[in-house]
Amino acid sequence: MNAQPVMANKAAGDVPPVHPLWLRLTHWLNALAVVLMVMSGWRIYNASPLFDFRFPDEITLGGWLAGAILWHFAAMWLLVVNGLLYLSINTATGRLGRRFFPLSPRGFAADLKAAFHGRLSHADPRRYNTVQRAAYLFVILDLVLLVLSGLVLWKSVQFPLLRELMGGYETARYVHFFTMAALVGFVVIHVAMALLVPRSLLHMIRGR
Amino acid sequence: MNDRHKRMWQMDIGPEQPDRRRFLRGSLALGALPLLGGCSISDEPIVEKALLQVSRFNDRVQAWLFDPEQLAPTYPESMITRPFPFNAYYSLDKVPQVDGERFRLQVGGRVADQRPWSLAELRTLPQTDQVTRLICVEGWSAIGKWGGVRFSDFLERIGADLEAQYVGFRCADGYYTSIDMPTALHPQTLLTLTFDGQVLPARYGFPLKLRMPTKLGYKNPKHVEALFVTNTYPGGYWEDRGYNWFGGS
């Protein structure tokens, strides 16, 4: 474990980066798309709230409903195209299988316990612990569901199968809301963790 | 009717009224079209222009996705939302009162037979009705039953150029909008004369409302008094203020 950082310093060019360039690019483009989608989405939510609260206008994007929709339906292309690119490269290079699996419930429990005791190892940034694996896979699936429910809201007539799978138009609104809430929850924890281990943030920016 | 619908009924006089006022104020001040007023990033004209270009691109994507054979779901009458929410860019007391006796639907543009239609004449055409979900751009939806003349039948009868790109509508309340020809010819697109089995009440668009379950609420004009077939983009009341033109569902 001690040898690796020294080696990396000696021959930085020879050692592959912690995160390849394509991953860093798709990560930050995704982050941008998520911020635009969530902030404009909150504005759209405010036009007809599902629950007894509204998002403060100051943290929304678009100025009014039409502006928010313009943002939302522009940023969706970034989210989807970038997301498909991420999933394709991740699958084709085998990185998805290497980085995220195996994923055992026992490993998850052990790593979660270690995390709460502040003893989770971050010695090898090339290896995700089980909690990370589960969290990242969760947010990938959550984003897929978020996009699919959004597709039902946008085109409920044109995608009948998807609409029925979502339980109809009105249920799709709730699916869209709760998958958004889960995504925001993930982002909060994710950013907090990155700040707790600042090195991981540098890895995602510089690759090393 | 749940509380949410009740609130909508009482307060909805257009998509996000306070913001619309801000938009109007902004446009008076700047003499331009600051659609996205209120957010410093999007006030930039270049950002606004780019977003509107994506919206035009989304029009084309939606036209491509639109399947003329694909029907919107229909519902049993027991699922009709009662009372059905009123929605317009003005309050209920401003709803236009049209004299049904004197009313004539004006027909123009690329149409062979441009003679105007009285309500009695429209009622002699074959009628059909359907129970469908109206989806508002704000997100809420409500189920209603509309009846009238299949719009494709009407367009054929007046000798409309069915190869033209647009059908535009002008309404008694100053509203205007336009739709693509494939949607105009969709089997569920109706020129409606009734709501829930009754003569269309004023609040739901007497004397005529074009009903399309394949488009969002703001694309469904009420109080229609003139329609025209054209190849020149006619725009629309909300569309000219930033809403997506195709507005398909």
Short description:
The complex is a heterodimer of chains A (208) and B (249). Chain A has 208 residues and is mainly α. Chain A has helices at 3-10, 21-47, 65-92, 95-100, 105-116, 130-154, 160-165, 169-196, 198-206.
Describe the structure.
With 208 residues, chain A is mostly helical. Chain A has 2 domains: 22-93; 113-208, no CATH class. Chain A has 9 helices and no strands. In chain A, helix 6 packs antiparallel against helix 8. Chain A starts with a helix and ends with a helix. Mean pLDDT of chain A is 91; it is low at 1-11. In chain B, 26% of the residues lie in helices and 21% in strands. In chain B, strands 2, 3, 6, 7 and 8 form a 5-stranded antiparallel β-sheet that branches. Chain B has a 4-stranded mixed β-sheet with strand order 1-9-4-5. Classes of the chains: A mainly alpha (208), B alpha+beta (249). The A-B interface holds A 44-50, 57, 61-67, 69-71, 73-74, 77, 153-158, 160, 163, 169-170, 173 and B 4, 8, 15-16, 19-20, 22-23, 35-39, 41-43, 50-52, 54-55, 58, 62, 65-67, 70-73, 133, 135-141, 213-214, 238, 241-244, 248-249.
